[in-house]
Automatic annotation (TrEMBL):
The keyword Membrane does not apply. One of its GO terms (molecular function) is oxidoreductase activity. Pfam families: Bac_luciferase. InterPro entries: Bact_Lucif_Oxidored, CmoO-like, Luciferase-like_dom, Luciferase-like_sf. To bacterial alkanal monooxygenase alpha and beta chains. SUPFAM superfamilies: Bacterial luciferase-like (SSF51679). This is LLM class flavin-dependent oxidoreductase. Its EC number is 1.-.-.-. Transmembrane segments: none annotated. Keywords: Oxidoreductase. Residues 19-307 form the Luciferase-like domain.
Length: 333
C-alpha cells in the first residue's frame, strides 16, 4: 500500500509545443512560455520538452533551444528534456548543449534521455544518415555522456565538464528501467502512451536499483494525460481534441492539434469510436472535474507507488490548458 499523496510527491509538466490548427510554431512557443510562467506560479516542479521530428503538430524538435527559451522566461522551476533522443545526436554535442544551459541557468536543468528516434524511419535516415543501430550503442552513448560531465573523457566538453546536470533515463519498456536501476539514475516511464508495461517496468527498476553518487534511492516518475475542467461535460468536450489526435495517429496522418468538436457522436464513425474507446480505457488518461482527477490520480499513486507524476494535457485552447493545470495544482494544496 502506497502512503504517498499529492502533498508529498511533486507534479510536473510535459510540453510538446503543440502546433494548433490555424497557427504557427511561433505561436506555439508563445503558448509554451505562457504555460510555463503560469505553472511555475502554481508550484509545479519541473517543465520538460519532448523531442519529435517530422510531425506537423509538434514544434519541439530543437529541444535544447526551447529549454533555454523556457528557462529564460521563468525563474525557479526546473526545465529539461523529456526527452532528448540520444541516438539522434553526438554525446559530446548533447553534453555541450546541456552544459551551456546549466551554465546559464544553474541548478535548474534536467537531461532526460530516450533511445527511440521520436519519428519515422525516413526521418531517422535524414537525421542520422543510417538506419541500423547496434543494441550496445545507446548504453555506450550514455556512458560517454556521463564521462563528459565527469571530466573523464578523452575530449573535454566545454561547457559541461564538472557540471551537475541530472541525467534521467526515459522509456516505455523494461530495457531503460533496468539500465536506469543499474546506473542508479532517476527513471521516467512513458505510461501516458504505453500504459500496459508501467507497473512491471517500475518493479524492475526498484528491484535492480543500485545506489549511486547521483541517487541514493530509486526515483520513478510516471506520465499521465490529464484534461481537467470545471464540469464533466466541459472536460469531455475538450477531450475531443485528444480523440482526434489519437485517430490521426492511428491512420498514420499526424497533423496539427485540432479544435474540439461539439457533436462527436455525429462526427466519429463506429470504427473511430472503437479506436477512441480503446485508447481512453487507459488509467493513465484522466478526464473530468477536480474530484474525478483527484480520485483517478490517487488510484495511480496507489497502484504504482510513483515518486513523481508528469502531466501532459492535449488541449487546443491555451487558456483552457492553463486552467486544467490550475485544477490539478489544487490537489497539491
Amino acid at each position: 500500500m502506497s502512503s504517498k499523496t499529492f502533498n508529498n510527491i511533486p507534479l510536473s509538466v510535459l510540453d510538446l509545443a503543440p502546433v494548433l490548427e490555424g497557427s504557427t510554431p511561433k505561436e506555439s512557443f508563445q503558448n509554451s512560455v505562457k504555460l510555463a510562467q503560469n505553472v511555475e506560479k502554481l508550484g509545479f516542479n519541473r517543465y520538460w520538452m519532448a523531442e519529435h521530428h517530422n510531425i506537423p503538430g509538434i514544434a519541439s524538435s530543437a529541444t535544447p533551444v526551447l529549454i533555454g527559451h523556457i528557462a529564460g522566461a521563468t525563474n525557479t522551476m526546473r526545465v529539461g528534456s523529456g526527452g532528448v533522443m540520444l541516438p539522434n545526436h553526438s554525446s559530446l554535442i548533447v553534453a555541450e548543449q546541456f552544459g551551456t544551459l546549466e551554465s546559464m541557468y544553474p541548478d535548474r536543468i534536467d537531461l532526460g534521455l530516450g533511445r527511440a528516434p521520436g519519428t519515422d524511419q525516413q526521418t531517422v535516415f535524414a537525421i542520422r544518415g543510417k538506419l541500423d543501430q547496434h543494441p550496445e550503442d545507446y548504453p555506450r552513448q550514455v556512458e560517454e555522456l556521463e564521462d563528459y560531465f565527469a571530466g573523464t573523457a578523452a575530449v573535454q566538453s566545454v561547457p559541461g565538464e564538472g557540471l551537475n546536470v541530472p541525467i534521467w533515463l526515459l522509456g516505455s519498456s523494461g530495457f531503460s528501467a533496468k539500465m536506469a536501476a543499474q546506473k542508479g539514475l532517476p527513471y521516467s516511464f512513458a505510461s501516458h502512451f504505453a500504459p500496459d508495461n508501467t507497473v512491471a517496468a517500475l518493479d524492475l527498476y526498484r528491484t535492480y536499483f543500485t545506489p549511486s553518487e547521483a541517487l541514493a534511492e530509486p526515483h520513478a516518475m510516471i506520465g499521465v494525460n490529464v484534461i481537467a475542467a470545471d464540469t464533466e461535460e466541459e472536460a469531455r468536450y475538450l477531450n475531443t481534441t485528444q480523440q482526434q489526435q489519437v485517430l490521426n495517429m492511428h491512420r498514420g496522418q499526424p497533423g496539427k492539434l485540432q479544435p474540439p468538436i461539439e457533436n462527436p457522436d455525429e462526427a466519429f464513425s463506429q470504427m473511430d469510436k472503437a479506436i477512441i474507446e480503446q485508447s481512453s480505457n487507459s488509467p493513465y488518461t484522466v478526464i473530468g472535474t477536480k474530484e474525478t482527477v483527484r480520485k483517478k490520480l490517487e488510484e495511480l499513486l496507489e497502484s504504482t507507488g510513483a515518486d513523481e507524476m508528469i502531466i501532459n494535457s492535449s488541449i487546443y485552447d491555451i487558456d483552457a490548458r492553463i486552467h486544467s493545470y490550475e485544477i490539478v495544482s489544487e490537489l497539491m494544496d
